[in-house]
Write a structure and sequence with these properties.
alpha+beta; Beta-galactosidase, Chain A, domain 5; Immunoglobulin-like; 10-stranded antiparallel β-sheet; 9-stranded parallel β-sheet; 42 strands; 21% helix; 30% strand; hydrolase
């Protein structure tokens, strides 16, 4: 222990250890964040401040654009701590104080018992006599424990409409070069940073990231739990690599908050899952190099070996999965996981009518669906509804005898009726645009913000909330709707300048009001199921998913392009929340139907397709996939993901996702056009064990063979069936 340490605060439980160092002459810092109760190997001392606070009067201690070494952060000193536990969660509060600025900061860490993950947020209070403007406050800031930053890999994911969850693993040095900082005696100024803009929290990047030590496999995997703007960054300091996570900032998002004396500000929550690492893991594929663009390839000095770090990453993913299950709001949907049929994707495509829906409802029920969601268009009388939405009354032309006829048919078939809804927008041609006051909308300079023919409600305003409450309560109580697909197809940008010190502060307050509204809806209607959708998955974050029951993972209509999205989804969300579309069609071959069904079976199967026009043998193949999925749902709630070919590259010809539950590992494996006939899947958790390998779906299909090498922990899969082709495999120890 360094000689200048006057105190350490040690906190944790069987799954997590955190050690905070208190120094007399430098900032309080996080010395250790590791899995389990035993201390990790000692890390080099770090002076990275535990909390960073950027204010305009002082800025940073050293010139840069980082969220590291802020002047206030460098002066914050220890002022006490408290530890407690309740309801299965452990909590640590570290109090800090800066005498010069009058700012106090309280770091709040929460962790579910036995789970190697922690949620962190910071409360900043102005205890001085003068107002203090805040330009940025980190939710988490710490040094990553490693001998050399040059030995670290960076993990992050790009995302956009139709191409969500595209993960990349690269050496940190590809983005932050070795500058020889020791010879200069100063920290670096550069950083690798990802940000989001507006309200599409995953519109450009997934609000997650990670660092992996290639030598040890030690991994930190983080998520930012915010339905609005965020920033995370990493870079090199004299004493190693650091990580800083935050919500909106002035530099990136036009956010600032003026703290009057006595006022406080709380950052958005973030979570960090940790793994102490292992040298087991990895993946390789013969023939195509599948996985070479994915995470499993582990670019860097050990690229291709697939050894160090993979198991650490998967262990951290397992910890994050367990944390998310502890975080999500209890709901009757969770133990049941009813299977949803939605009429949109490659089927009615926003053009529902009674004539089209009634045979589709009967076919969906016969296939085994338990929820039937009527998607977009049910409110449209004129055929051009995009910029007229907002009142949410059923169409009279589409449903001559009323929408009630359709909803009654759904309930008579034993299914829960659902509707598509985009609650946060009002079309510029909607009657509601004139009925609601200007103050009920996000604005800039006195003008309502408009995007793609829609205004955006400001959920800080009581008139906006009252309107949405009336809509939801009417549809639930009068029409018997039990499921809403909550879509979100515009992004209002930086925010609103109404009743806010900055447009970013106005947006943050709206973001938080939106979450409060969702909670109030579920409080009033506790059995109502809410799906999170945002042009697919462009608002995929755990501010939303801790409250809502499932997440549409994409709007991707090409069944050949969907598998990499589905394979990567369990790193970004719970497997049981990952609503992956399967949309079999009458024109598909049996192998193509199996291919699209496999995309949904190991997640929250989200079924669509023109079932009434399918042949009996095609319907039987769909029903077989539905039965398999329904038989797996109890295990889905306990499963942790693994990636035997590494996280997927967008164009990988072979793809695989594994879900581990107890002694059973279930695999979905896809072979896309252009793939060779053989892939080798690495399953290190089954090393040395004899297995039975069952081709579970389609059960009667031929053309696939599997061979297990227990010593190498490799499953060789050979497919003679022409691509596209896919299978569900069950692996059980003998």
């Amino acid at each position: 222990m360094p000689a200048d340490v006057v105190e350490t605060v040690r906190w944790g439980h069987t799954g997590l250890t955190a050690v905070v160092e208190i120094h007399p002459d430098r900032p309080v810092s996080l010395r250790e964040l590791s899995a389990g109760t035993r201390s990790a190997p000692p890390a080099a001392p770090s002076s990275q401040p535990l909390v960073e606070v950027l204010v305009p009067g002082e800025g940073r201690a050293r010139a840069s654009q980082r969220l590291s070494e802020t002047a206030v952060g460098c002066r914050l000193r220890y002022a006490g701590s408290e530890q407690s536990s309740a309801n299965g969660w452990h909590e640590l509060r570290i109090r800090l104080r800066d005498q010069a600025s009058g700012l106090d900061a309280e770091l709040i860490m929460r962790s579910p018992d036995g789970v190697s993950a922690v949620q962190v947020r910071v409360l900043v209070t102005n205890t001085g006599e003068h107002p203090v403007p805040l330009l940025a406050v980190t939710s988490f800031a710490a040094a990553f424990p490693a001998e050399h930053a040059s030995g670290l890999d960076l993990l992050y994911a790009d995302s956009e409409w139709l191409a969500e969850n595209r993960w990349t693993r690269r050496p940190l040095g590809d983005h932050v070069p070795d500058l020889g900082l020791g010879a200069h005696g100063q920290h670096g100024k550069g950083t690798f940073a990802l940000t989001s803009q507006g309200t599409w929290s995953s519109g450009r990047h997934v609000p997650m990231g990670g660092l992996i030590d290639r030598r040890t496999g030690r991994t930190w995997l983080w998520q930012i739990e915010h339905n609005g703007p965020w920033r995370w960054e990493t870079g090199e300091r004299l004493d190693g690599a650091y990580v800083a996570l935050s919500g909106p900032t002035d530099l990136d998002h036009q956010w600032n908050e003026l703290l009057a004396p006595g006022e406080s500000f709380t950052t958005v929550p973030v979570a960090i899952a940790v793994s102490d690492g292992s040298r087991e893991g990895g993946a390789r594929v013969t023939g195509d190099g599948a996985g070479a663009s994915g995470v499993g390839a582990s670019a860097g000095p050990e690229a291709g070996a697939g050894a160090a770090g993979i198991d650490g990453m998967e262990s951290a993913a397992a910890a994050l999965t367990a944390y998310r299950r502890a975080l999500v709001r209890p709901h009757p949907d969770r133990p049941a996981l009813p299977l949803i049929f939605n009429d949109y994707m490659n089927t009615l495509m926003g053009d529902p009518t009674t004539e089209k829906l009634l045979p589709l409802i009967d076919a969906a029920a016969a296939a085994g669906a338990q929820v039937f969601c009527v998607d977009a268009g049910w409110y449209d009388d004129g055929g051009d509804w995009w910029d007229s939405v907002g009142e949410w009354h059923p169409s009279q032309t589409r449903f001559p005898h009323g929408l009630e006829e359709v909803l009654t048919r759904i309930t008579s078939a034993g299914m829960t009726p659902g509707l598509w809804l985009e609650p946060e927008v009002i079309g510029v041609r909607s009657p509601m645009a004139d009925k609601l006051p200007d103050a009920a909308f996000l604005q800039r300079g006195g003008v309502r913000l408009a995007e793609h023919g829609r205004y955006h409600l400001d959920l800080r305003h009581p008139a906006a909330v009252a309107h949405l409450d009336q809509v939801v309560d009417r549809l639930v109580e009068e029409l018997g709707v039990g499921y809403f697909k909550l879509d979100y197809n515009i992004n209002p940008g930086a925010g609103t300048d109404v009743d806010a010190p900055s447009v970013g502060a106005g947006l943050l307050a709206h973001n938080r009001a939106h979450l409060a509204w969702l909670e109030s809806v579920l409080d009033r209607h506790p059995r109502l199921v809410l799906e999170n959708c945002g042009s697919g998955a462009m608002r995929m974050d755990y501010a939303m998913l801790s409250r809502l029951q499932l997440q549409s993972t994409s709007d991707q209509q090409d069944f050949l392009r969907y598998p990499p999205i589905a394979v990567a989804a369990p790193l970004s969300m719970l497997p049981e929340q990952a609503a992956n579309w399967a949309y079999p069609q009458p024109g598909m071959t049996a192998e193509e139907i199996a291919f699209t069904m496999c995309t949904g079976i190991l997640g929250r199967l989200y079924l669509s397709g023109d079932l009434p026009r399918m042949a009996p043998e095609q319907l039987a193949l769909v029903a077989e996939g539905v039965r398999l999925h329904r038989s797996l749902r109890a295990d889905l709630l306990r499963a942790t993901p693994c990636w035997p070919l590494g996280l997927p590259g967008w164009d990988d010809p072979w793809l695989a996702l594994g879900l581990r539950t107890g002694q059973v590992t279930r695999l979905a494996v896809w072979r896309r056009p252009g793939a060779s006939g053989t892939a080798v899947l690495r399953l290190p958790h089954l090393a040395g064990r004899d297995l039975t390998v069952e081709l579970a779906y389609p059960a009667a299909a031929e053309g696939w063979a599997c061979s297990w090498n227990a010593r190498a922990a490799e499953l060789t899969v050979t497919a003679t069936t022409p691509a596209p082709t896919a299978r569900i495999l069950h692996l059980r120890p003998l």
